[in-house]
Structures are given as C-alpha cells and as structure tokens.
Amino acid sequence: MSPRILLLASVAVGACLPYDALGDVRPALADQGPSAAHWLGTDHLGRDVLRRVSAGGAAFCGPGLGAAAFAALGGTLAGAAAGWNGGALASVVRTVLGAIASIPSLVLVLLCLMALGPGPVQLAFAGGLAGMPALAAALDARITSLRTSEFVLAARAHGIPPGRLLWWHLVWVNGRDIVAREALAVVGSVLVLEVTLSYLGHFGVAEPAASWGNMLAHGLSTGCPNRWSWLAPAGAVLATGWATTLGPVRR
Predict the structure, then answer these.
(1) Cα pseudo-dihedral 58, 219, 240, 65, rounded to 10
(2) What is the model's pLDDT at position 108?
(3) What phi and psi values does residue 48 have, to the nearest 5 degrees?
(4) Which of 60, 76, 86, 175 is most buried, taking the most CB atoms under 10 A from its CB?
(5) Is-contact 239 61, C-beta < 8 A?
C-alpha cells in the first residue's frame, strides 16, 4: 500500500479516537519531556502531546473531505459544461471561475467565514469554493482536448447519446484522475487554511479543543521547554501536506 495512503489513513483513525480535552489538563505534569508514559512529553498545561496531535487531525478531516466533495461536484459540473459546449457558455463559466481564482484562498475563506460565521461546515464550503476553479479548469482542458478527437467523432457516428459520451467516456473514463488529484489537493489546502486560522485564532479551532494550528501557536508563544509541543504538530502538517500532493496526471 502507498505510504501516502497509510499516512492519511493513520491521520483519519487518530482523528476518530476519543479525546477528553479538559480531562487531559494536568498542570503538575507541565513541560515534561518524552517518557514511557508520554512518548512526546507534555505541553504547558500538562497535556499529552501525542494524544493532542492525534486528536488534532479531526479539526481538518471533516472540513477537508467536505471541501473536496463540494469542489469535486461543482468543479466537475462547471468543467464538463465548459469543455463540452464551448462558445458563450464556456466563456461565462471560465470568467466566473477566473474571478473566484483571482482571490487568494486565505482571503476568500476569511471573507466567507466573516459572512457565514466560523465553523467546520462554513470552512468546508469556503475551502471547496476556493478549490473549485483549479479542478474545473483542469477538467475543462481535458474535455476540450478530447471533444474533437477521433474516438469521440466515431462514438457520435455510432449514435452514442451525448450524455453518455460526456459523463461516461470523457468525465469518468478520461477525467476521473484529474478530479481525484484536484480533490485531494483541496484536502491539503484546507489543512493549511485550518492550521493558519487556528494559529491566528478567532476563526480557527479554539482551546481547549485540539488543533495542529493552536498547538503550534501555544507551543511557540509560551516557550514550552518541551520542543515536541510544536515540533510534533509541525511535522504532522508537513507530512499530511505531502500525502495530499500528487504528481502530474499522465495524459
């Protein structure tokens, strides 16, 4: 099995494990280094760093998957419509998506959260909206390049319905790799956005709930002697970001 899949699966499993954020507070054990009882030591409130890193994955798993699903649905519909029809419809779709893509992802997410309020559902919507243009553009380019290919012309000549030709032969058979790659990239982008928001506070996950972002913020701002209090979440962010980044799709 791919190391990327194993890593993402371990993050998902860790995020599903029960964790009592308040019950884990033990001031008498604050700032301890790694030991047999606490493999990565404890933070400034005596909380187990390893348990909080494991639980912190939940802060982005739900919003990340929701954002990926939203981007995949909207981006597939938009990209397929533009690539298959061309003309004025394609111009309108590409203009709208281009306008969305012109707004930096963090700014777009902040605007959405300011309008809708903070929360995992709102983050999923904002992250999916930010990731939709790239997915739609990639699928649009693939379908546009195949629309006049010989196998499509032959399928038309044999009477294959346009709907089946578009959604099965072009989107599913020839475009699912693009959708999967871009949707996985959306999960990675939501990870970065959630960590940034939690690090900055207000719109992110607030204490005592665990998040890699607020762990980094507290570990660095309090000067905790146990460096694993911020090295562990930083490593989790880097590793998970790598796992959600795939190479270019073969054409």
Answers:
(1) 30
(2) 96
(3) -70, 120
(4) 60
(5) no
Burial of 103 (0-12, 13-18, 19+ CB in 10 A): middle
Q: Which of 225, 200, 235 is nearest to 214 (CA)?
A: 200
Cα–Cα nearest to 31, from 19, 14, 48: 48
Q: Please say whether the beta carbons of 76 and 135 come within 8 A.
A: yes
For 117: left if phi > 0, alpha if psi spans -120 to 50, otherwise beta; the answer is: left
Task: Return the structure tokens found at 168.
Answer: 């099965």
pLDDT in tens, 94-105: 999 999 999 999
Residue 42 backbone phi and psi in degrees, to 5: -125, 165
Compute the distance between CA of residue 121 and CA of residue 15 in angstroms, rounded to an integer.
17
Instruction: Find the distance separating the first CA and the last CA of the chain, reported in whole Å.
Output: 24
- Statement: the pTM of the whole predicted model exceeds 0.85: yes
What residue spans define the domains of the chain? Answer: 61-172
Contact 194, 204 (CB under 8 A): yes
Nearest to 141, CA basis, from 179, 92, 104: 179
Helix H or strand E segment including 165: none
